Amino acid sequence: MKLVLAISFVLMGLKFLAYYLTHSNAILTDAIESIVNILAGSFALYSLYYAAKPKDEDHPYGHGKIEFLSTGVEGGMVTLAGAAMLIKGIASVFSPHDLENVDIGLAISVFSGLVNFLLARVLIKKGTALHSSTMVADGKHLLTDTWSSVGLVIGLIVIYFTHLFWIDYVITIGLGILIIYTGINLVKESIFNLLDKADVGKIEHLISVLNTKRNPSWIDIHNLRVVKYGSVVHVDCHMTLPWYYTLEESHREVDDLDKLATIEFSHEIEFFIHADPCLPKSCSICEMKDCKVRKNDFVKRLEWNMSNVLPDTKHTAS
């Protein structure tokens, strides 16, 4: 992130130089977005520093959720920048002017677009590997900046050969709309994460792993919750075990489930498992063949899925 921020300063300077030489509104909008890149990158860098702080008494779940706030702040700034570009493009329609040194502006736009693309790929790859929503969001922002540069370059090429300068205003308006769309999506993603919206993909993956590698003593799992705090995933669930298990035996089963999920997932996972004793009705789905206190016959294996794992209720074969 420090490297991205440093390069963003250089690109911003080049883009404003290109605007000074060409007087292109489209290039100006690209330069304004670079200011947003720097502001967003600065806050993102701080949020990564803050999110990495260890847990303390005031923050028992850690500081990772600031990354979601960072994503929202970045999305808000991107949206405002896009709105400013849109207004500038519309205003320029009513006060047109010719462009100068289009070839120089074209060269600078190609260079900045290529650099932004490389930075975006690195950020998204690193952010995905480290489960950092801040880095992924910044990468998506830079990727949008790349596509903006692609559209800008195409427009400048057309202007260079046709001298149809009104295309500059069309590009400005189009880029403004694209950037607003990106910003709104980042804000929505931030809100969903802050409100702990269920991550269906992670839950389905976890359920699939548990179905495949479950122990016979894991009679039932219900009231499953998956919450993400920065790079750490917290999993809460109720686990039905044989009622006659000692505290030590129950702890061993809970620990086995915890280790299984930790091995299968690349995230850092924290499990909070509540052990429930089985009931006579649980026999219908209990696969323990050596149970000496069975009250009812085994009917069928209960395949866990989204519909029966999320509710806070024990289950039977019926």
Kindly list the characteristics that best describe this protein.
318 residues, mainly alpha, Alpha-lytic protease prodomain-like, Alpha-Beta Plaits, three-stranded mixed beta sheet, 3 strands
Set down the secondary structure blueprint.
Blueprint: H1 2-22, H2 25-51, H3 66-93, H4 102-130, H5 133-162, H6 167-194, H7 200-213, E1 220-229, E2 232-241, H8 247-264, E3 268-277, H9 306-309
Parallel strand pairs: 2-3
Antiparallel strand pairs: 1-2
Helix pairs in contact: 1-2, 1-4, 2-3, 2-5, 2-6, 3-5, 3-6, 4-5, 5-6, 7-8
Order of helices and strands: HHHHHHHEEHEH
Instruction: Spell out the CATH superfamily of the largest domain.
Output: Cation efflux protein transmembrane domain
Radius of gyration: 27 Å
End-to-end distance: 54 Å
CATH topology of the largest domain: Alpha-lytic protease prodomain-like
Spatial ordering of strands, largest sheet: 1-2-3
Give the tally of β-strands. 3
Structural features, described:
There is one protein chain. The protein has 318 residues and is mainly α. It has two domains: 2-194, Alpha-lytic protease prodomain-like (Up-down Bundle); 200-309, Cation efflux protein, cytoplasmic domain (Alpha-Beta Plaits). The chain is 63% helix and 9% strand. The chain contains nine helices and three strands, in the order H-H-H-H-H-H-H-E-E-H-E-H. It has helices at residues 2-22, 25-51, 66-93, 102-130, 133-162, 167-194, 200-213, 247-264, 306-309, and strands at 220-229, 232-241, 268-277. Strands 1-2-3 form a three-stranded mixed beta sheet, with helices on one face. Helix 2 (25-51) runs parallel beside helix 6 (167-194), helix 5 (133-162) runs antiparallel to helix 6 (167-194) and helix 7 (200-213) crosses helix 8. The longest helix is centred in the middle third of the chain and has 30 residues, at 133-162. It is elongated, with a radius of gyration of 27 Å. The two termini are 54 Å apart. The relative contact order is 0.11. The model has no long low-confidence stretch (mean pLDDT 82).
